[in-house]
Amino acid sequence: xxxxxxxxxxxxxxxxxxxxxxxxxxxxxxxxxxxxxxxxxxxxxxxxxxxxxxxxxxxxxxxxxxxxxxxxxxxxxxxxxxxxxxxxxxxxxxxxxxxxxxxxxxxxxxxxxxxxxxxxxxxxxxxxxxxxxxxxxxxxxxxxxxxxxxxxxxxxxxxxxxxxxxxxxxxxxxxxxxxxxxxxxxxxxxxxxxxxxxxxxxxxxxxxxx
Length: 210
Fold this sequence. Notes:
It comes from Amycolatopsis cynarae. This protein has helices spanning 51-61, 87-101, 115-119, 139-147, 157-173, 191-209, and strands spanning 18-20, 23-25, 32-34, 40-44, 67-70, 107-110, 130-136, 182-185. By secondary structure, the chain is of the alpha/beta class.
C-alpha cells in the first residue's frame, strides 16, 4: 500500500505511524517494511514574497534532486478546515510528500506554513526532519506587490494587513521557532538571485544529511 499510515500486511490504519530508521513497523501486527524517511523542505513565507515565482524556476534548477510542489493545489473545499492551523490540510500534504519520498527523492513544498503547523502532527514521524526557509519582504514592497495583483484574487486592505502582520512576525520570531526558520529578504533581490539562494539552501541541507 502507498498510504504510509496503512500496514500492507494486516491493513491497520496507524494514527501515529511507527518509523524506526529506514523501517516502518506496524503497531498492531508487528510487520516491518522498508521505508524512505527523507527530509522535507518547506519554502514558506507570506503571500507576495515570491514563493510561487521562485518555485516555478526551481523545477528545472533542481530536477532530479527534489520534487517541487505547490501547496495551494490541494486547497480544496474538503480540506479547508479552519481549525487551529488547518490540520487536515497539513496532514494530507505530509502523507502526499511521504508517498513521493518512497521513490527516493525528497520533496520541496512551496506554501505558507510554520513549524507548529507541521511538527505536532502524527505524520511528522514519516520524515527525518523538516527544513524551513521563509521568503520575506519589506512591508511597503510586500503591500505594493499584493495591491498589484489581479482583482479576482481578492486582495483587499484587510487581507493585506493580515499578511503584513504575518510577515512582521516571521521577521521578528523565525529564529525562535522550533525548528528555527531561515529568512531570505526578496525586497531588492532579482528573481535569479532568489532562485539561487533557495537552490543553495536545498543543496546545503542535503550535504548536512549525507
